[in-house]
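Exercise 7b. Backbone tokens:
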């Protein structure tokens, strides 16, 4: 058994195509470090329900865990730690697609450095509470009608999967007084490693407090809130870094230079996901909007 577990989430509801893309990229790009592939089957009725996936896996060495389809991805990741014996864990979500040879070795090399507690393939400064200062001040200076039309136009240009539904849901919660983002989410720049592809040691993960994440709102808070995964790691006196194809570990204040998430052409990205692919698919105006969400005045859309 290796000391490193690569845990890939496969959700039954997502169907076979995302897993097929992941597996193709996994075979195409050597990991660069010994590891055990763990397939986390979520929402499957045991081995009888994985027939379509078995054919794709073929003789690829792997281990399987079956979990019910409740809660969100991050809860499932943390629960899997208790079922595995490894000392280090790399978690990839259902839509992950590997882009470079030696990718896992590059991530692992940084998690092994003294003082590093969290490594991610991407990170962001975005705050869903207040956006970035220029956007916030600019829209609030507009007449109410113009402000509403501008926000609707921005929402319609956001091509991220489910973006419009999320905006509508958050607006409804805010109107009901349930969601008060300024109370739960730090203002821009809000440093957080994205939980689409991240790595940490067992000892660090066991010190992280995580509540049952039954709602998307809870997932936002865990990824980018006051008590986010990143902030909890920083409070432990450990560092959080983003690692690019170049093998460099970027500290939070330099994430905008890593060209991994919603910046330039994302040419330094190690592991893609549905959000990085939405940026690639967007038109120039859409990429500008997304890049500004993540990096404010330091945006450099490609």
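Sequence design result:
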């Amino acid at each position: 058994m290796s000391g490193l577990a690569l845990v890939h989430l496969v959700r039954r509801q997502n169907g076979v195509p995302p897993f097929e893309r992941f597996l193709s990229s996994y075979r195409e790009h050597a990991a660069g470090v010994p590891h055990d592939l763990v397939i986390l089957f979520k929402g499957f009725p045991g081995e009888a329900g994985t027939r379509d996936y078995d054919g794709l896996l073929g003789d690829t060495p792997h281990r399987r865990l079956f979990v019910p389809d409740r809660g969100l991805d991050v809860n499932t990741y943390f629960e899997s730690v208790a079922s595995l014996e490894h000392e280090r864990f790399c978690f990839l979500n259902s839509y992950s697609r590997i882009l470079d040879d030696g990718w896992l070795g590059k991530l692992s090399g940084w998690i092994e450095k003294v003082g590093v507690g969290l490594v991610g393939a991407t990170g962001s400064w975005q705050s869903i509470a207040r956006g970035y200062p220029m956007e916030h001040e600019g829209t609030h200076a507009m007449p109410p009608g113009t402000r509403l039309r501008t926000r609707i136009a921005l929402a319609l240009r956001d091509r991220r999967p489910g973006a419009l539904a999320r905006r509508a849901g958050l607006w409804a919660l805010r109107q009901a007084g349930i969601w008060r983002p300024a109370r739960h989410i730090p203002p821009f720049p809000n440093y957080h490693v994205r939980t689409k592809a991240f790595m940490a040691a067992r000892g660090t993960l066991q010190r992280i407090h995580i509540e049952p994440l039954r709602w998307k709102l809870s997932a936002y808070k865990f990824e980018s809130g006051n008590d986010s995964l990143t902030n909890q790691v920083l409070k432990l006196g450990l560092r959080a870094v983003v690692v690019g194809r170049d093998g460099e570990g970027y500290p939070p204040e330099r994430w905008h230079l890593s060209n991994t998430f919603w910046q330039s052409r994302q040419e330094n990205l190690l592991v893609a996901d549905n959000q990085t692919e939405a940026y690639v698919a967007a038109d120039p105006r859409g990429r500008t909007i997304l890049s500004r969400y993540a990096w404010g005045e330091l945006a450099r859309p490609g």
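Instructor comment: The two ends are 42 Å apart (CA to CA). The chain has one domain: 4-126+188-298.
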